[in-house]
Amino acid sequence: MDRRQRKTREAIFDAFIDLLSEKDFNQITVAEIIEKADIGRATFYAHFETKDYLLKELSEELFCHIFDSVNNENTEHRHIFNCNEHDSIFLHLFRHFEKNDNNILKLLSCRNNELFLRYFKTDLKLLIKKQLPALNYIQFEGLPEDFVINHISSTFVETVKWWVNNGMKESDEEINEYFSKFLHIK
Amino acid sequence: MDRRQRKTREAIFDAFIDLLSEKDFNQITVAEIIEKADIGRATFYAHFETKDYLLKELSEELFCHIFDSVNNENTEHRHIFNCNEHDSIFLHLFRHFEKNDNNILKLLSCRNNELFLRYFKTDLKLLIKKQLPALNYIQFEGLPEDFVINHISSTFVETVKWWVNNGMKESDEEINEYFSKFLHIK
DNA sequence: TCAATACCGAACTATGTGTTCATTATTTTA
DNA sequence: TAAAATAATGAACACATAGTTCGGTATTGA
C-alpha cells in the first residue's frame, strides 16, 4: 500500500476515533472527519464509500489482533499477558482490555455505538463457537447452540460495558469472576 | 385530546411502525412517514419535534400497558393471562408477547432498532429492580445490584429477540424455561 | 527520470431537515 | 347554532450534509 494511502487512512481513523469518544456516531459528519484528519473531501470518499464502511473497516482493524492473539495463542503471547494455557479466553480478553493497548475500549464504552458493538459481537460469537467444546457448558444442555453462544457473547459484552462505564475499578481477574458467576463456569 | 389530533397521531404511529418493520430507523425519512400517514409536513412537526421523539413517544405508549399489567397485577389480569400469583414476571411478559396484542414484538425483533431496545431495557430494569427482592438471586450475591439488574434485563431482551427471530416455535412456558436456565432460577 | 497514482479543492447535484405562513376545515364553548 | 379557538394543509423557504466530478498538483515506486 502506498505510503500516502497509509497516512491518509491512518489520519481518518484517528480523527474518527477522536470524534467517536466525543459524540454519537450518527452525529458525526464527514466534514468534521476530514477537517480533523486534514484531508480533502474527495480523498475521504476515495478511501471509504460511506461513514458506515469507515466504522466497519475500523472495527475489523481493531478486532483483528485482539482476536488473533486469542486464536493463535502461543508462548510469547502467554508470557506477555502473564497467563497460562488454562485461563479462559474471556480472561484473556479482559486482560487485553485492561492493558488498553489499542482504542477498542474507547469505542466499546461510548454511548450510542450499537453498530460497533454488533460488529464486536459477531466476531466474538465466531470465537466462542470455536472454543465451545473446550468450555463445559453442561448447565445449558438442551438449549440450541446458537442461542447459548448468543447468550455468552451478550453477557460478555454487557459485562465489559458495565466494567468500563464504572471506571474499571475491578481488576481483570475480578471482572472475570463476576462474568463467570453469571455463566456459572468453574 | 382533539379528535383530529388523535387521528393524526395514530396515523403517524401506524405509518412509522410499518416503515420500521421494513427498514432501519435511520433510513426512514420524515417524507416517507408523512406520505404513508397521508398528512402534511407541517402537521408532523406540530406533533413531534424530531424522528427521535416520535420513537420515544411510540415506545412509551407501547410499553405502558404491558408493564402496567405486570405492575398492577390483579385477579382479572391473572384470569385473562391464565397465570397464578407465583408465576414470575418474566413468564407474564412472555405471555404478553405470545399473544402479540400490540405491535411491540414487531419492533423488538426488527433489525437495527437499538434505540427502541434501549428504551425497553430502561423500563424493564425499573420493573426488575422493584421485583428483585421477590426473586431469589442468591447466586449473584456479592455483585453490584445495578450490574445484576442489567444482566437480567439484557438476558431477557436477548432471549425475546432470539425467540422472535426464530419464528417463536417455542411456547411461552418453554421459552421461559430457557430463560430461567440462563439465570439459574427455580 | 518518468509513468502511475494519490491528493487537492472547489464547484456541483441531490436529498433530507425543520420552519413559516396564509388558507381551509374541524371542533369546542358560550 | 354562532363565534372563537384550534388543527391541518400545502407550498415555499433556508439550511445542513452527502456524495460526485474534474482539472491541476504533488508524491511515490520502479
Query: Helix count of chain A, per DSSP?
Result: 10
* Rg over C-alpha atoms of chain A, rounded to the nearest angstrom: 18 Å
Assembly type of the chains comes to homodimer
Work out the strand percent of chain A. under 5%
**Helicity level of chain A, as a percent range?**
55-70%
Instruction: Give the integer mean of the pLDDT values of chain A.
Output: 88
Contiguous uncertain segments of 5+ residues of chain A: none
In N-to-C order, the SSE pattern of chain A is HHHHHHHHHH
Largest interface: A-B, 21 and 21 residues
N-end to C-end Cα span of chain A: 47 Å
* Strand tally of chain A: 0
Main sheet characteristics of chain A: none
Write the layout of secondary structure elements.
Two copies of one chain form a homodimer.
Chain A: H1 3-22, H2 30-37, H3 41-47, H4 51-71, H5 75-80, H6 89-99, H7 104-109, H8 114-131, H9 145-165, H10 172-183
Helix pairs in contact in A: 1-2, 4-8, 6-10, 8-9, 9-10
The structure holds a DNA duplex (30 and 30 nucleotides).
